[in-house]
Specification:
Blueprint: H1 7-22, H2 25-35, H3 41-48, H4 67-78, H5 82-93, H6 96-102, H7 105-116, E1 122-125, E2 141-145, E3 148-159, E4 166-173, E5 182-188, E6 194-199, E7 210-221, E8 225-227, H8 232-267, E9 269-270, E10 273-274, H9 279-306, H10 313-338, H11 349-356, H12 366-378
Parallel strand pairs: 1-4, 2-4
Antiparallel strand pairs: 2-3, 3-7, 4-5, 5-8, 6-7, 9-10
Bound molecules: flavin-adenine dinucleotide.
């Protein structure tokens, strides 16, 4: 088994690290958190560097890089802050991949080049007030009309809500119950009947737009259908790429916290000695590094085996679940190393700890990931309704 990264991948990571130093990303991360404002100039910068849509099809402006390369870029930028990594996440592991894989020629031409230029972004819209983990109970409907469909319903917690140009909306075609009736359509910002709720106030990930979406008799042309009812399996398979991206965010946040805790332990003195000389602190740092590396191996395995396609549902679920738990533990331990200063907004650790919490809810909860893993282990699905 070859654990080495390519020369190009190592150079990419180094160049992102250098850019972070040059552009003072640590300070920028604190500013985004304090203001709740996302710095849109990053999109232009990332686009020029070829970081947006690097895995997307070449004919539409992407580079068709491997999933692992995108994961490495997300991880590296998330060491500063998941918000600084967000555009690379969205354009490489977000729902634009569904369009790249299953969309029509027209849909790809309309959306993907703009994503690579940082002008378009696509939000994934699954969750409803009464359907989160139980996605197959969703009640947003698409009713056939002369030349298309009429969309009605409400989505909640939609990342990019209000800001994104396009929305990949999961909805039920007609009356078909369960997963068989679910497909996905593209809804464009500004379509009549499509409105946004107020922006969410989350404990972390400040600067990330998120809100409810309302669809009141929105007219959807037939050409906006990406996945027809009956192809729900394809939708969920593509979602495993997003799960790897979610896990890469956790690697980045934990990597940032580990580095900060290591530096602090070498500088901070107690009992007249740097605290890194105390075995209790050394063991804490060693445990943090061990958990982070274990998560890294799982995430890289899932991404690496995906190549330029889709990861295995088992490997992606396991990687996300482990990384989601790891990042909470590592950021919490980092706070302990920082003592009282870790709890203060003067230092980045309290932000990292807040930013660590969402990943084990968004993109599939820890319980739902374990249900998926168990179904693969036992070779059968366990119906949660019975
Ligand atoms: C920061 C953030 C960003 C998000 N971004 C998006 C987005 O862009 N698009 C989108 O569509 N959604 C998004 N979400 C929503 C997210 O996907 C849902 O919150 C998540 O799927 C859980 O759904 P729920 O909140 O309805 O919880 P519920 O499904 O109500 O679950 C509540 C609790 O019960 C547990 N549970 C439920 N069923 C079972 C079971 N069978 N066995 C064991 N335990 C169970 C869950 O694991 C959870 O702990 C985001 C959420 C957050 C926090």
């Amino acid at each position: 088994m070859d654990f080495s990264l390519s020369k190009e991948q190592i150079m990419l990571m180094q160049s992102l690290r250098d850019m972070g130093k040059r552009e003072k990303f640590q300070e920028l991360a604190a500013q985004i958190d304090a203001s709740g404002e996302f710095p849109h100039y990053l999109l232009h910068k990332y686009s020029e560097m070829g970081l947006l849509g690097m895995v997307l099809s070449k004919e539409f402006g992407g580079e068709k890089e491997s999933s692992l390369t995108a994961i490495l870029a997300i991880e590296e930028l998330a060491k500063f802050s998941p918000m600084i990594a967000a555009p690379v996440f969205e354009s490489n592991v977000g729902p634009v991949r569904v369009i790249d894989m299953f969309g029509t020629e027209d849909q790809k031409r309309t959306i993907i080049p703009g994503v690579c230029r940082g002008e378009n972004s696509v939000s994934v819209c699954m969750t409803e007030p009464e359907a989160g983990s139980d996605l197959t109970s969703l009640s947003t409907t698409l009713v056939e009309d002369n030349d298309g469909y009429i969309l009605n319903g409400r989505k909640v917690f939609i990342t990019g809500g209000g800001e994104a140009s396009h929305y990949l909306v999961y909805a039920r075609f007609g009356e078909t119950k369960g997963y068989k009736g679910i497909g996905a359509v593209i809804v464009e910002k500004g379509m009549p009947g499509f409105t946004f709720g107020k922006q969410e106030q989350f404990m972390g990930l400040r600067g990330m737009p998120s809100c409810d979406l309302y669809f009141d008799d929105v007219r959807i042309p037939r050409s906006n259908v990406v996945i027809r009812s009956g192809d729900f399996g394809n939708l969920m398979l593509t979602f495993d790429i997003e799960r790897c991206g979610n896990a890469a965010m956790c690697l980045g946040i934990a990597g940032g916290a580990l580095e900060a805790a290591k530096q602090y332990a070498m500088e901070r003195k107690a009992f007249n000695r740097p605290i890194c000389e105390f075995q209790g602190i050394q063991f804490t740092l060693a445990d943090m590094a061990m958990k982070l590396d274990a998560a890294r191996l799982l995430v890289y395995r899932a991404a690496s085996n995906a190549g330029q396609g889709l990861p295995s549902i088992y490997e992606a679920s396991m990687a996300k679940c482990f990384a989601n738990e790891m990042v909470k533990e590592v950021t919490d331990k980092a706070m302990q190393v920082f003592g009282g200063y870790g709890y203060s907004k003067e230092f980045p650790i309290e932000r990292m700890l807040r930013d660590s919490r969402a990943w084990s809810i968004a993109g599939g909860t820890l319980q739902m990931l374990r249900i998926t893993m168990a179904s693969v282990l036992f070779g059968r699905r366990f119906d949660q309704r019975r």
